[in-house]
Amino acid sequence: MVRLPFRRGRGGEVVMAFDAAEIGVLRQLLGELITLLGPEQEGAVDPLARELGLAELEGFTVGTEPVRAPDDPALARLFPDAYPGDTESSSDFRRFTQPGLASRKRQDAQAARASLDAGPGRRPVDDALLHSWLRTLTDLRLALGARLEVDEEFDRTYQATPDTDPRKPTMAVYAWLGWVQETLVRALS
């Protein structure tokens, strides 16, 4: 019988279960994601946001300078252009959305990582943490996928890649994360 990372328990609750090796891999990946997202940014309140009454919204921070697209392909995938081909509009959109989005991604990854502190074994997971896991697994797969240049042919490419290829372990982790995410989606549905 295959042990599922996420599944419905007998009482209807969603249960999470990882072994020690899986926890080690996940802690490493989550730490790398948190580092990739960078430190929490102190955002200034934009005069227009203040005028529109947005300055009082909890967690609403806006940069005061234009924000260009990230050079790092993983960050560019996590924060894609809202208006491809229109750098000025994309910059404005990033200025209003990226600080809050990065903060949320960081909080989700930190919550997922903290949930691993109990160590191996089964434990029920509340809805808020399940959704943090779901968003974080998506972010991990997007970042790894960008690094691996994943496309529609990934499964075929992965199977054809020799075990001696240095990308193979990362490809295996990417595929495993997809399976973990699938078990979570099934447990939630």
Oligomeric description of these chains = single chain
Q: How many beta-strand runs?
A: 3
Number of domains: 1
**Major sheet characteristics:** 3 strands, antiparallel
**Average pLDDT:** 87
Return Rg in Å. Answer: 19 Å
Q: Indicate the overall shape.
A: globular
Secondary-structure element pattern, one letter each: EEHHHHEHHH
Short description:
The protein is mainly alpha-helical and about 190 residues long. Helices cover about 55% and strands about 5% of the residues.
Describe what this molecule looks like in 3D.
- This protein has one domain (6-188).
- A three-stranded antiparallel beta sheet has the order 1-2-3.
- Strand 1 (6-8) and strand 2 form a beta hairpin.
- The chain is mainly alpha-helical.
- Helix content is 57%, strand content 7%.
- The chain is globular, with a radius of gyration of 19 Å.
